[in-house]
Amino acid sequence: MPKVTIDDIEIEVPDGTTILQAARMIGGEVVPPAMCYHSKLKTSGGYCRTCIVKVEKGSEKDPRPMPKPVPSCRTTVMDGMVVRNKTAPDIVEARAGIVEFLLINHPLDCPVCDQAGECDLQDLAYEHGKSHSRYDFQRRTFEKIDIGEHIKLHMTRCILCYRCVKTAEQITDGRVHGVIYRGDAAEISTYIQNVIDNDFSGNVIDVCPVGALTDRTFRFKSRVWFTKPVDAHRDCPKCSGQVRLWEKGGEVLRVTARKDKYGEVESFICNECRYDKKNASDWVIEGPSKVDRHSVIGANHYENSVLSATDDRQQTGLPHGKKVELGEGALNPNNIY
């Protein structure tokens, strides 16, 4: 198996592993950011260029450095390769330029955007962005449209990462939306409004790294950091049935697929689970979701809290009045608050 050194950390990886995948095996700050790559989607990556790295040594057989920064999500590891990410000032500077490019047309509407608090671009701009823009021309603007019964498209926010296109292409019966036009006129769209209608259409919302595709049933209902994410599951004949419930005051405001620490969907879910099962009684509650502490959603998170569960014993099967530690068993979300 080839060995690669990333930011002075050596790791042995299987053949065919990309630099980004190798960096994720190491973890921590050596992992480049990624906006368009999604491990569950074939041929994803290579569009946004935020994951670029510097290859100081190509391999043991050919130690010459690669002349330009390369996208780590598409570049395969070779034995003896030496890669720089955070430890290369020129790469950090180049990444800042890419972020500035992504923000050329992106509106500064975080205060009213439903994606705020779980937006990859927001995190990227905070870490690598600049406090002002050098772009003096008028930004592209689009009217908000409904591309499905439950999906609102705000193309003004789109960064053309192609995730939603590949999701619809790979997990649904037929893709009816995509990128139309070319160059600076390119946009995600459909030819007919409300045309997206299939059992897995809601997954395009989950894979969108920005606020371009939002859930019409959740828009403007609550800020995400005011909700409590709870992992739950049900016996679903269409999908895995493993979801994340977002609750507020005992009410399930939305249902999404579970995501890993890189913001990627772990298992795609059907629309029945997403839109038709919004009662806690429809689910077997596993416990509070694990939230990365750097996330604003982690504020006042209750994962290690000890609370008294006294109501609805039929859901948990616990004796009346017994205290339980959240995360160690099924707990009705109505008892969390």
Describe the protein in words.
There is one protein chain. The protein has 337 residues and is an alpha+beta fold. It has 3 domains: 3-101, Ubiquitin-like (UB roll) (Roll); 103-215, 2-Layer Sandwich (Alpha-Beta Plaits); 224-335, no CATH class. Helices cover 16% and strands 20% of the residues. The protein has 7 helices and 16 strands. The chain has helices spanning 19-26, 89-102, 120-128, 163-171, 203-207, 271-276, 313-316, and strands spanning 3-6, 9-12, 52-57, 70-71, 81-84, 145-148, 151-153, 178-180, 187-189, 213-215, 228-233, 242-248, 251-257, 284-288, 306-308, 323-325. The strands form 5 sheets. Strands 2-1-5-3-4 form a 5-stranded mixed sheet, with helices on both faces. Helix 2 (89-102) crosses helix 3. The longest helix has 14 residues, at 89-102. The protein is globular, with a radius of gyration of 22 Å. The model is unreliable at 305-337 (pLDDT under 50).
